DNA sequence: AGCACGCCGACT
DNA sequence: GTCGGCGTGCTC
């Protein structure tokens, strides 16, 4: 592997001519070559963090991607300014991983770096100004104008000011000229301030000054001395009580957290005096942001089914790198994972377990923590940056050999992965949409695993078709785990026909009679209910009953969603908000009605239908805060809520014994999504949410409301017949050229002017047509949403042959085309986005 | 992406 | 007349 980058220490005598290709977090498709100064040559290597100047003044953190001796021919390389650490922050495998990702997903390696490194590890500079100490306004030969005076005054009582501060002081946008003039007049100095963003958590502690613990007599003397000062004595006694240095003098080294003294209500000023007089000393240590916790080291006992699956997995791994574990909900995958993880860790390798975002808040992590204690790292998107840096460093130092995390945890600096486990592998949230790199963490995880010569286990109750196809064709191993753990039974399904009930006048506030009866039954039995509707807000739009007018977003091509909470109309694409109109803007009629079903409305309807029930709602709007989701879950878990309404958030990881009824408000909405994956997703979503119904002792009920109960997919979902559903859908996919039979690349063209957007998309489309590769080219078509944030959107879809190097060739050509187009003035300001394997 | 340099409108 | 708008070109 080393040879990929050249052996940088080949010729030690010529180290003065060393150059480094550096990855910088900028969206420019190349690395940048800098000169390695003599004094750094010995201590530098691939993956080291360095500081370089980029452009006229910007200072950036870069990562050494390659070291070589070839001086650039067309320009003068700038020197590396400094080295940030005495070790590599990124290992060679990661650099290869980044390079692969940039190439595969058609983005720049700098963008990958940006996504990979927690921002705490990327420092950058900010321009600041300060007063020139030699400047004296009275003797200065240069006259100052009003604004310059103003700025100097503002600066007079400050150490420094940022450009933003200056703008604020002067109240104008362009301060450059003024600053320049002040520099020429030698009144100020402009400098770059580099800020290290990561700050370790520091704890203040106290202990006896050295000589006092050397022998007991000294301590006794000390107490005699201090006897007249009760407050100080109290503090010393408290210290001795917490840290028995009489018995074990070595304990003094670690001291006592300073906070303990103030928490005990003892005098802070007396403590200060003790420190001032040299009796105690204060010192600081760096502590972890994560609590220390012992693992339980318990013996995991697998059921016979689990044990069998476990053995099968191991057997499959003998000749396959990737294995799919097809295990139905509640089959106890967690225990299986734990057993596997333990085994890999015992072998001295690292393990990465990927989970979808919300699953990270649930009991699975708690269970893992119980077993692995703080040797397990958790990498969460809601973590602060400092916390992320600590996980990063934990993996780097070897302290954390096992990490559970969301999709971005594939970027952690593992150096010897033994296994990557991707749970709920079918989850769409593994795909990153925006910004680049638009990677699929499941696929990237398999690649990462391959780079480590490690194994990948994919787990799902409803595998993605891509994965299942790979398993069927023998590319992946396949193990199924069919029995529900602990004798829990599969739920009963009921199809409730919305149209029939409507005709019979049995539909009340969008609830069919069957649904209402089942809910009532559960309530009577003190059981809980989940209601699923994948749409937030009150109603997706409101409409004028007289003329059909619908309020739309000013910036996007969508109707505004009515949110009862806060009484406003909101755009779910750009965040635009406005007041709810009282009359139609087109005809003035005041007959405006809310159309369609959102979670808010369902919540309201439930309160009306079941006034005695406690109803709660879980969607993006109620879980925005860091612990919003967890709080709602706890409320529900503790039985403070009878009915929980929610979006797809409720479909995952909610394992509560008392849920016996799950209602799906509008299955058709999931099914008729204009996307080739709609069927697959419907199957997955409905199965997932249904899996929440009924546990151990009680069979659950799942009520699916639909307008077309005769559709085959329902029968397949109900009988859990994933395979026949799969076969049927795959027939379609093959006929109409959809993945996994082809590779899809989506190219989006965006511009604020409709005509320009359309013209650019056409032009690009034609050029793509000329690429000599077997392909199907569709479009360019106006986006599903024609305009978002005032940008008109066009899309082209390319379907590529999976075999050979068609993909690689096409991508390469495409990037050339885009580069050229972007340089052309006709397409100035046009944004092109390439999405490989889009969702 | 930033951030410079460079050429045109609306204010003193 | 200048200030200040932003178009366009480059970054090792």
CATH architecture of the largest domain: 3-Layer(aba) Sandwich
Count of separate structural domains: 7
Helix content: 25-40%
> Globular, elongated, flat, extended or rod-shaped: what is the shape?
globular
CATH superfamily of the largest domain: P-loop containing nucleotide triphosphate hydrolases
Architecture blueprint of SSEs:
Blueprint lengths: L18 E5 L8 E4 L2 H4 L7 E6 L3 E11 L13 E2 L8 H13 L4 H8 L8 E7 L14 H11 L4 E2 H8 L5 H9 L3 E7 L6 E8 L1 H5 L1 H11 L3 H13 L13 E2 H6 L4 H9 L3 E8 L16 H16 L2 E6 L5 H14 L3 E5 L8 H10 L3 E4 L5 H13 L4 E4 L11 E7 L17 H11 L3 E6 L4 H8 L4 E5 L10 E6 H6 L9 H12 L3 E5 L8 E4 L16 E3 L4 E3 L6 E3 L12 E4 L3 H11 L5 E4 L9 H10 L5 E4 L12 E6 L2 H5 L6 H13 L10 E6 L5 H7 L3 H14 L6 E10 L2 H16 L5 E14 L2 E11 L4 H18 L7 E6 L3
Parallel strand pairs: 12-17, 12-18, 13-15, 13-16, 14-15, 16-17, 19-29, 20-27, 20-28, 26-27, 28-29
Antiparallel strand pairs: 1-2, 1-4, 3-4, 3-5, 6-7, 6-8, 9-10, 9-11, 21-25, 22-23, 23-24, 30-32, 30-33, 31-32
The structure holds a DNA duplex (12 and 12 nucleotides).
